[in-house]
Automatic annotation (TrEMBL):
Database matches in Pfam families: Asp_Glu_race
InterPro entries xrefs: Asp/Glu/hydantoin_racemase (IPR015942), Asp/Glu_race (IPR001920), Asp_race (IPR004380)
Keyword Isomerase (UniProt): yes
Tagged with keyword Secreted: no
Protein name, per record: Aspartate racemase
UniProt superkingdom: Bacteria
Amino acid sequence: MTERLEFRLGIIGGLGPLASADFYRKLTELTPARVDTDHLPLVLLSIPQLPDRTEAILSGSDAVLKQLLVAVRMLDSLGVESIAMPCNTAHHWFERLAAETSADLVHIVDSVVEEMGHSFTGRRVAVLATPGTLSSGFYQDRLLAAGYEVCVPSAADFQQDVNRAIADVKAGDLASAGVALGNALAACRQAGIEAAILACTELSVMSREVDGAGLAIFDSNSALAMACLRRLGYVAADVRPVVRRRAG
């Protein structure tokens, strides 16, 4: 009889690959482990050939959903307890996916709202995200339900800078991504916004380099990682994420 490997967490990754690597690194760093065996047994499915999520949302295509369902069922077959998707835009299909799995599908926005509730006392929040995520509205719905005011800077280039930063990370040009993200955050400050959510996991890749300069910054990858660790009993409910910044 072949021994079966046991995985507690399943990750639907590759959306994009660098964002998934960032999530796995943060999950590892946030785990209170002393030796290898203290870490969470998990499986990462990397599916970078998944169709573009924003294009699918804006066109009404089900092509992404069909492939995400295949991924969820594959993780179910491995017996995982929880599933994480380190891709904000893919959460457009969250309810459909959650209905098809016996695992606990962890919502990235609920994870962000939980972190905000522990450390943020303001109200005015900007969501830095893809056009698909913004069009879907799930961030706005959950933030408004939690009592926050979702604000959009009036600067003409704000969304273009966000889009450019995301595209630059996907292309591996982190220096250019940092410039574009910095411009977007400056527009948030000028608009009197109190917090900015890195609501695309490509932007999460830049979280260690971000200079909030008066803005509270919430990283969706870090929040999702902490939510997974809490649900699976690896950290206590009142422990806050501390992701180390890179030495500059």
